[in-house]
Amino acid sequence: MAASAHPHRRTRLVRSLLLALGLVLAGARAAHAVSVSPTALYIDSRTRTGVLTLHNPGTLPEEITIEFAFGYPVTDTAGNLTVPVTREPAAGEPSAMGWMRAFPRRLVLQPGQRQLVRVMVEPPADLPDGEYWARVLVSSRGGQPPIEQTQGDVRLQLDVATTLVMAANFRKGSVRTGLEFTAESARRETDGVHLQLDLRRTGNAAFLGRMRAEVVNERGDVLGTAWDDLAVYRDVRRRHVIPVPAGTTGPLFVQLTVDTEREDLPAGGALPVAPLSRRIPVP
After folding, report:
1. 224 near 242, Cβ under 8 Å?
2. Span 208-223, mean pLDDT?
3. Cis (ω within 30 of 0) for the bond into 275?
4. Distances (CA, A) of 82 to 37, 54, 74, 107
């Protein structure tokens, strides 16, 4: 019995060490990871080319691999935002993953070095007008020496690797976007005004913009403000708690303003849309 139990103890130990090391390295690694600019790629059918700039700010060489997947932001019923990434998109999804190629796809980036990577898109000839989505996966390893851990007769050597995931959207022909409020609610709680919005994208391209939500009283005085960057590819739910001064009484309203001014995106990333405004009573 003792001999058969030993592998199980070793398995549990290995898993525990891997988890502990992974959590420690996740924070330590951030300062040494390769940087990539711009923050997203928006490629049109005229050029069919995008350019990424990779930079290694560390003191050790980084081995870089560039791949492609499919994914876009989604939210659950609580408004929690995630970006599921897959190599096998469901049928009917507007995926550009299979048409994208990186040149070079693999490289070694020396300390302080910068490297341009071209992303080429080769869509089908009969592709309908619209926007098609992918994610660029920039994986790097080697910028830190392997981490070794020994406990008893178990010795681990863990290579450190990171993967940066960024949007890559391909636009063909006439593309347009817009935003609809399909449901909205605001209520007063002890910690502030709770705002919930269900948003739906219109048109054939993702809506990229920003929202300002202000809690105002009947005189128009602003009592609290929340900001949100929006990336609505299909439907999303957004939730905010907007603090207001303690003891606030009287009727309140949430004044919403939505536009497509996104300074964090490359020029031309957000398709232009006329600003939207909305006023929601707070019971």
Report:
1. yes
2. 97
3. no
4. 22, 25, 6, 30
The total of other beta-carbon atoms located within 10 Å of residue 129's CB is: 13
* Architecture of the structural domain at 2-17+39-172: Sandwich (2.60)
pLDDT at 3: 39
Question: Max alpha carbon distance in the chain (Å)?
Answer: 78
Check residue 31 and report its DSSP letter: G
User: In the prediction, which pLDDT does 1 show?
Assistant: 39
Q: Cis before residue 281, ω within 30 degrees of 0? A: no
Sheet (strand 100-103) strand order: 35-37, 49-55, 114-121, 100-103
Q: Does the pLDDT value for residue 28 go beyond 60?
A: no
Query: Pick from 201, 191, 262: which is nearest to 229 by CA?
Result: 262
Position 157 pLDDT exceeds 70: no
Question: Identical fold at 2-17+39-172 and 177-282?
Answer: yes
Domain ranges of the chain: 2-17+39-172, 177-282
Q: What distance in Å separates the CA atoms of residue 141 and residue 159, rounded to the nearest whole number? A: 7
User: Is the pTM here over 0.90, yes or no?
Assistant: no
| The CATH fold of domain 177-282 | Immunoglobulin-like (2.60.40)
The span from the CA of 167 to the CA of 122, in Å, is: 17
Strand pairing category for 49-55 and 62-69: unpaired
Q: What is the pLDDT of residue 196?
A: 98
Q: Residue count of the chain, please give it.
A: 283
Asked if 241 and 193 count as a contact pair (C-beta separation under 8 A), the reply is: yes
